[in-house]
From TrEMBL:
PROSITE patterns: MFS, SUGAR_TRANSPORT_1
InterPro entries xrefs: MFS, MFS_dom, MFS_trans_sf, Sugar_transporter_CS
Location(s), subcellular: Cell membrane
Pfam families: MFS_1
Superkingdom of origin: Bacteria
All copies of domain Major facilitator superfamily (MFS) profile, residue ranges: 1-341
Gene3D superfamilies attached to this UniProt entry: MFS general substrate transporter like domains
UniProt keyword annotation of RNA-binding present: no
PANTHER family for the chain: SHIKIMATE TRANSPORTER
Stated name of the protein: MFS family permease
Protein source organism: Arthrobacter ginsengisoli
Positions of transmembrane segments: 35-56, 77-98, 104-121, 154-174, 194-213, 225-243, 249-267, 288-311, 317-336
Length: 374
């Protein structure tokens, strides 16, 4: 599934670079774009879940945070590469009209590299030890999604809400609102300058994402989340205060303080999710929780932010929106137990089934219907 989603993501993204324009193909052009974007969205959920479990389930129990941080680096690294290449196209290779004519296609066409990555993964990486145990024991559920929601539906919702606040904030950059707003007449920066600043912010985000994975192995997943969401809360209002000055150095400072919290609240996610769900439904659990969190958090965040600016004439409402989303995620993460180091193998399924939420007082020693189903 990981290889399939990697290749599907690469192919869909590359094909966007070949799309006809509305002027040449009419309404079929945006329809084709929409279909390719849907394929990207389908790919993203499975791609993230597969990569996360490949990393975390291979890692020693005291290094899962660091191992799980590597798939997380894909988002800030992708943002860094995308904005960097786009800045290169708008500033040097195809400035002005040339970018609108053909330059915008180049970053999409470069996604052919993802297809090569998918092939490499297929040739070089083994299945995780936990997956091999499940296959050997023939304990894979026939309908894992049904089993997941029947036994752990509330856990999926809470896990999704943990991600929603961070994803809503992250989409301010990855979804294009900050680049669009900072280069609008209201602020007045040149588009290439903004793209370079966002690429710099992505680099900071990347560093603190990995640092958060390391910290989660030392001080726990929840404590790292608390620090990350605290930093994210503190940045919600200063972010736009600094951008609104119209000063390029202040834009860089804004991206710095904003992406520190983003990274610290993103790095522990892979390990936390993997330790929340039992082995038999773990792939479905982490993938669906991530996808739902992205829908609830980031999918509409840029649109909501733009609508709030248009309705209020300022950015204070956007900051309040980010504060609200962050507080929801902070509450959600407080409802889960830190299970750092729990045995992730199928042999420990009974313990994994219970106790992921702080109000779940059951133990694996107490017979109950949930455990007997396995």
């Amino acid at each position: 599934m990981l290889v399939l989603t990697l290749i599907l993501m690469g192919a869909a993204t590359m094909l966007i670079g070949f799309l006809p324009t509305y002027a040449t193909a009419g309404v079929i052009a945006p329809i084709m774009l929409l279909l390719l974007r849907i394929l990207q969205g389908i790919s993203a959920g499975g791609e993230w879940g597969g990569a996360v479990l490949m990393a975390v389930e291979h890692a020693p129990k005291d290094r899962r945070g660091r191992a799980g941080a590597f798939p997380q680096l894909g988002v800030p690294l992708g943002l860094l590469l995308a904005t960097g290449v786009t800045a290169l196209m708008t500033g040097l290779i195809s400035p002005g009209a040339a970018f609108l004519e053909w330059g915008w296609r180049v970053p999409f066409l470069l996604s052919i590299v993802l297809i090569a990555v998918g092939y490499f993964v297929r040739r070089a990486v083994d299945e995780s030890p936990v997956f091999q145990e499940i296959a050997a024991a023939k304990k894979q559920p026939k309908t894992p999604i049904v089993e997941l929601f029947r036994r752990h539906g509330l856990l999926v919702i809470i896990a999704a809400l943990i991600f929603a606040g961070n994803n809503a904030a992250g989409y301010m950059a990855t979804g294009g609102f900050i680049p669009s707003y900072a280069s609008s007449p209201a602020v007045g920066h040149e588009r290439t300058d903004v793209l370079v600043a966002v690429a710099y912010g992505a680099a900071v985000w990347l560093v603190f994402t990995y640092l958060a994975g390391y910290l989660s192995d030392r001080i726990g997943r929840k404590n790292t989340y608390f620090i990350g969401f605290g930093a994210q809360l503190l940045a919600c209002f200063p972010l736009f205060w600094m951008i609104n000055t119209g000063s390029l150095p202040m834009l860089y400072l804004a991206m710095t303080i904003f992406t520190v919290g983003l990274g610290l609240a993103y790095g522990p996610q892979a390990a936390l999710y993997s330790e929340m769900f039992p082995a038999s439904v773990r792939f479905s659990g982490v993938s669906i929780s991530y996808a739902l969190g992205a829908i609830l958090g980031g999918a509409f965040a840029p649109t909501i932010a733009a609508a709030l600016v248009q309705a209020t004439g300022g950015t204070e409402a956007v900051s309040l929106y980010l504060v609200g989303m962050t507080l929801i995620s902070l509450l959600a993460v407080s409802l889960v137990r830190d299970r750092s180091g729990i045995d992730l193998s199928i042999r420990n399924q009974a313990e994994q089934e219970v106790g992921a939420l702080v109000f779940d007082r059951r133990t694996a020693d107490v017979p109950n219907e949930l455990i007997r189903t396995n």
